[in-house]
Design goal:
The complex is a heterodimer of chains A (about 400) and B (about 450). Chain A has 14 helices and two strands, in the order ααααββαααααααααα. Chain A has helices at about 5-10, 25-60, 75-85, 95-115, 140-160, 165-195, 200-210, 215-220, 225-235, 250, 260-285, 305-325, 330-360, 360-395; strands at about 125, 130. Chain A has a two-stranded antiparallel sheet with strand order 1-2. Chain B has about 450 residues and is of the alpha+beta class. Helices cover about 50% and strands about 10% of the residues of chain B. In chain B, helix 4 runs antiparallel to helix 5 and helix 13 runs parallel beside helix 18 (about 425-435). Classes of the chains: A mainly alpha (about 400), B alpha+beta (about 450).
Chain lengths: ~400, ~450
């Protein structure tokens, strides 16, 4: 089986580093092909996701939803994209032009790059060469994911800041605070996965989980990291109920208020692309990626794993749509409270527990108890801090406490 | 924001727009806060409470929320002074929907009046028409047939439910529960369909007129009304599941935009805003008009006076209103739907072909209208948003000398700066939504 790691190890002496270590033109072609397919697949899935969201939300709201363009309105997104493409491209006078132009790309490129490390299926054979249905499998896979989601913050933040307008500015302040603080919880729950897998490679994470359904990290890690990841990812994506950055009812459109035409379309695309990507990441990290629910059959057919992957992906896409249709939006301070006072302590605590269990089963339980004790202490400290904050705020006794 | 310059409209209350810190003195600030109204006689203000120097000017930013903003319910403009996301000062600026309805009213005959006033608070059309008709009837000193009065009450209570449903929709939308928007509209549509059947129009009905109502209820109205009364309560249960019990919604609204009972009374807030503070004040019970004294209903009050209580008061008021509607259906008497005084109401169409007198009455009524005796009168009814008052001055001609509406949206809006103070931007949206202002009523 072709492995990137071997390739990296043996490029040193070759003339052209690209073609060293058994890498020839066919391999390069395969990589190019995979890039194209991955990009196309992501774009199609984004088109689908936008349509799916609009259709499901309208079902939930007693509406019909898009039904004009194409069968069941499936081409609606395409029509919208074409419309946006021909719209006038406005550049506000107060804007910092270069950054204003750059920001949409900072938003959309990481969303795609993060998708590159997600294993979509098993190993297939193209032109006598075996290759994984995965665009790239770098040794720093998980760190790469985290890095990309961090870079995406810049897109949103700089967009708001460079608009030279007040509402986008508020949006970008919210964005930087929100995405940075939820990244911590996101990273900590990812760390739990890395801890039990012992590898940063996404392919290893998937194959670790592929033995049977009980080996999925969802069950192996005790649900908690998954829950935290789901909440933190929602916040990271600015999806409802954490869509404070856009918050149409408060900030009009938040960071993208001043954007129009293609640049707005890029943000729009980036948001849905990130949603698909993040759902794919969740499938990879916690639901065993392309492996089916049964015991490992060594990824038999080429398309069965892909089917499983898509089926799991759909679960998350539906959850996101469902959340959007149902939940009100959190307030800025409540969001921060949830992130810093609940999710981060909880994920830290659980990480310690997992570490203890991995270290030694027997001692593990002792450490587990100690962990619970520490966790309770932490909770108490948070409560004390909370009541101190409330006292400082000087709430009148007759007034109901917010939150 | 610059200091008041030539472009800023000065009113007797000072500049309409909110000035920056360095150009605002303590007196101006107190006015912005509505403190003039809130102070008891003889009370002394400590300007130290309003220490402008405590915040550096560089730390603050004045933003305009509105007049084009998705959650200011039309064209309300609220200027907010923010420190970070915290609202330090705020000032509602109104007048963007000023259409001169009150002035127009002076140019229209009494018989044309309803069609004009109904466009003020366009979410509570029957109330506007009623208050005008009641004022005119009080000056004319005519006795309206009981059936007409019961029809008015039936339509008004249904209108109250429709209006509160719209509040449910927009309030949900404003805190981010977008589906609520559609559900509220959906239920409201049931009532509007009935209105269309009765009056021919979904809004701006011009149905309640001086002397009675324009037409009798259509056949099958009883079944229609009972169907509405059966259909809506289960939907309200669904709202409870979706919104009332929703932890995020509770976090967003509880303790937000608090108004004490004293403040609410001093700021002349009425309706759900006043009742949410625990003050039991409902004109239907406390100053009964029409036949409300013959009905049994509860006055819904809150406890904390926050945005959540205002929501809860409205939600439960709908249940009460539907109970009232059921009682009205039972009590609806037969009889005339308008007063048979040919000087006030036109004769039936068929009579015009037969009777010369009827033809003359009809002609006179629609060319020169009917004259209302000299005098002035104030009538008040409990509209969905609070006390809706109509002040009518007649000089004895066929047109009002002056007709002024005390619109609850307008009066309630002045409590906004008090409620917004110290909250966040997101709270501002929730609070504006909880006042439920209709700009058509505010600007008139």
């Amino acid at each position: 089986m072709y492995s990137k790691r071997e390739a990296v190890g043996s490029v040193t002496l070759a003339g052209d580093p690209l073609f060293g270590g058994g890498v020839d033109g066919a391999v390069v072609l395969i990589v190019l092909l995979k890039t194209g397919v991955a990009f196309a697949a992501l774009m199609v899935s984004v088109l689908f996701m936008v349509w799916f969201e609009r259709k499901v939300v309208s079902d939930m709201q007693n509406r019909i939803g898009p039904n004009r363009a194409g069968p069941w309105g499936t081409l609606q997104t395409l029509a919208d994209g074409i419309k946006l493409f021909f719209k006038e491209d406005l550049l506000p006078e107060q804007a910092d032009r270069r950054i204003f132009r750059l920001a949409p790309y900072l938003s959309i490129v990481p969303a795609f790059l993060a998708f590159a490390v997600v294993p979509l299926g098993g190993v297939i054979t193209i032109a006598g060469r075996e290759t994984r249905l995965q665009l790239a499998d770098p040794p720093v896979g998980i760190l790469f994911l985290l890095a990309m989601s961090s870079v995406a913050v810049y897109g949103v933040m700089l967009a708001g800041w460079s608009s030279g307008s007040k509402y986008p500015l508020l949006g970008s302040v919210r964005a930087s605070a929100q995405m940075v603080s939820y990244e911590a919880a996101l990273g900590l729950s990812m760390a739990a996965v890395v801890l039990v897998t012992g590898s940063l490679l996404t392919s290893d994470i998937v194959s670790e989980q592929s033995r049977s359904i009980v080996d999925w990290n969802l069950f192996r890690l005790g649900f908690l990291p998954f829950g935290i990841f789901l909440v933190a990812a929602t916040a990271e994506l600015n999806r409802p109920p954490f869509d404070l950055v856009e918050a149409e009812q408060e900030l009009v459109g938040g960071f993208h208020t001043e954007y129009s035409s293609l640049r707005f379309a890029l943000f729009f695309l980036a948001e849905f692309m990130s949603t698909v990507t993040m759902s794919a990441v969740m499938v990879t990290l916690f639901l065993g990626g392309p492996s089916g629910p049964g015991p490992d059959r060594g990824f038999p057919g080429a398309f069965l794993p892909v089917f499983w992957f898509l089926a799991k992906l759909m679960i998350f896409l539906f959850i996101y749509v469902w959340l959007r249709a149902t939940l009100p939006r959190l307030r800025y301070d409540q969001l921060m409270d949830l992130g810093w006072k609940r999710l981060i302590p909880l994920s830290l605590f659980w990480l310690l527990v997992l570490a203890a269990m991995i270290l030694d089963r027997r001692y593990g339980f002792a450490v587990f108890g100690a962990g619970i004790l520490l966790g309770l202490l932490l909770l108490r400290a948070v409560q004390v801090g909370q009541s101190a904050t409330d006292d400082a705020a000087g709430a009148a006794p007759a007034v109901r406490e917010a939150g | 924001m610059s200091a008041p310059g030539p472009n800023i409209v000065e009113t007797s209350e000072g500049a309409q727009e909110m000035g920056a810190r360095q150009v605002t003195d303590a007196a101006e600030l107190l006015r912005e806060e509505g403190a003039v109204l809130r102070l008891a006689e003889g009370a002394v203000v400590d300007p130290g409470d309003y220490n402008l120097e405590s915040v550096e000017e560089d730390d603050t930013m004045i933003i305009n929320m509105g007049p084009q903003h998705p959650s200011t319910h039309g064209v309300l403009r609220v200027m907010l002074e923010l420190q970070g996301e915290t609202v330090l000062r705020s000032k509602p600026v109104i007048g963007y929907l000023h259409t001169g309805i009150e002035k127009t009213q002076e140019e229209l005959m009494y018989i044309q009046g309803s069609t004009n006033v109904t466009r003020m608070d366009y979410m509570a059309n029957f109330f506007n028409e009623s208050v005008f008709s009641l004022a005119v009837e009080a000056l004319l000193d005519v006795e309206v047939p009981p059936r007409a009065t019961w029809i008015r009450m039936l339509l008004m209570e249904l209108n109250r439910v429709a209006s509160h449903l719209l509040f449910m929709a927009t309030n949900g939308m404003d805190v981010g529960a977008i589906s609520m928007m559609l559900y509220g509209w959906r239920e409201r549509e049931l009532i509007l369909a009935f209105f269309e059947k009765v009056t021919g129009l979904r809004m701006n009905h011009n149905f309640i007129r001086p002397g009675g109502v324009a037409a009798d209820l259509p056949d099958g109205w009883r079944e229609d009304v009972l169907a509405i009364c059966d259909a809506i309560p289960p939907r309200l249960e669904e709202y409870d599941t979706l919104i009332t019990g929703q932890p995020i919604f509770q976090q967003r609204t509880q303790g937000v935009g608090v108004l004490t009972a004293e403040q609410a009374i001093a700021l002349s807030a009425t309706g759900p805003i006043l009742r949410a503070t625990g003050t039991q004040w409902d004109l239907r019970r406390d100053l009964p008009y029409l036949f409300y004294d013959q009905l049994e209903f509860n006055v819904v009050v809150g406890t904390y006076g926050d945005a959540f209580d205002r929501y809860a008061v409205r939600l439960n008021e709908m249940r009460e209103s539907l109970q009232i509607v059921r009682q009205i259906v039972d009590l609806m008497p037969p009889g005339d739907y308008r007063v048979q005084d040919k000087k006030v109401t036109p004769p039936p169409r068929a009579r015009i072909d037969e009777s010369m007198e009827a033809l003359i009455h009809h002609f006179k009524l629609f060319t020169e209208g009917f004259k209302v005796p000299e005098g002035e009168v104030y009538v008040a009814i409990e509209a969905p948003r609070g006390e809706l008052g109509g002040y009518l001055v007649s000089d004895g001609s066929a047109k009002p000398y002056r007709f002024h509406m005390r619109d609850p949206s307008f009066a309630n809006l002045q409590s906004l700066p008090v409620m917004l103070r110290g909250g966040l931007v997101a709270d501002a949206v929730a609070v504006i939504s909880s006042i439920d202002p209709v700009m058509g009523g505010v600007d008139r």
